[in-house]
């Protein structure tokens, strides 16, 4: 496969895009009701369950799914695996979109959403012991870092178009940006490590409200490991999806070399979790906790199946098996995070929660928005490698330059 990134081009209003537009429109309608009539008008949240689907899925699961940029940056720039450079820009794009959507989801979830603007600016009122504050600040800064890392794709498009002032701006700033990227990359590795582990630390303070099968001192490490496994799984999914959708060559051999590392990451998660349960003398709860035992074993078996399939890629790489492994890993990670924040959480007798139709519609709208944004960007800017030159030629971006090159 060529290592040059090009815009995909082609028509935008495809049947898939129109379906996403419909979901976005439906979610927008529900969103108007939420912001004009309050949370109670569209959600099933309560004092017992102040965090529902919008946090558990759109933020906690969503940022896990958006960890591809973090995972590939660690692999390429820390472990020096330069042959994975073609995966960098697509991973950064999905990460930027995922984290941006998660940030918007927080606005929907918070009752007094207008107060969120105070978080980054009123530093004299910060609670220095708040894990939630650290998560919020890290996510805000990380969105900006991802935008900077992906900025060369925009500037290269302007440079290739050669249109007056935009081309001049691109030529002036591209070299400066590439010189600054090592510092930006370093920051982009630190921030996700902090906030992904802190998502697990948030649950430490839940104490007895969180079921013992999930409540452990290893929660920060477990959430960090699921971020890795989900991030790498998204690389597989995005690569195969974009290859099929846009006629790119499959990156089967390249992804196959990554299989042992991803499988090992998943096995490390399972080992840490099992060791934590045994160390706390809670292993027996896996068989005696009723419905929660079912969810525990569902997570475990999904992770095991994904690990086995990923490890097989080292011997015999096949796109179909890679897709199966990625979907299993994504399902396992998503289920673990939803279980930790919702299924395993028990605020006390009398409190029940199941997401309302309004919450589900808005969540689908978030997914649709992210999908549409992805399609627009890859069709207009040099993100994907292995794309045939479109009719309107755009200078390719050599993937050996800079963080997103």
Automatic annotation (TrEMBL):
Pfam families: NrfD
Recorded superkingdom: Bacteria
Keyword Ion transport in record: no
Subcellular location: Cell membrane
Chief localization: membrane
Membrane topology: Multi-pass membrane protein
The keyword DNA damage is assigned to this record: no
Keyword annotations from UniProtKB, A to Z: Cell membrane, Membrane, Transmembrane, Transmembrane helix
Similarity annotation: Belongs to the NrfD family.
Protein name, as recorded: Ni/Fe-hydrogenase cytochrome b subunit
Primary gene name: hybB_2
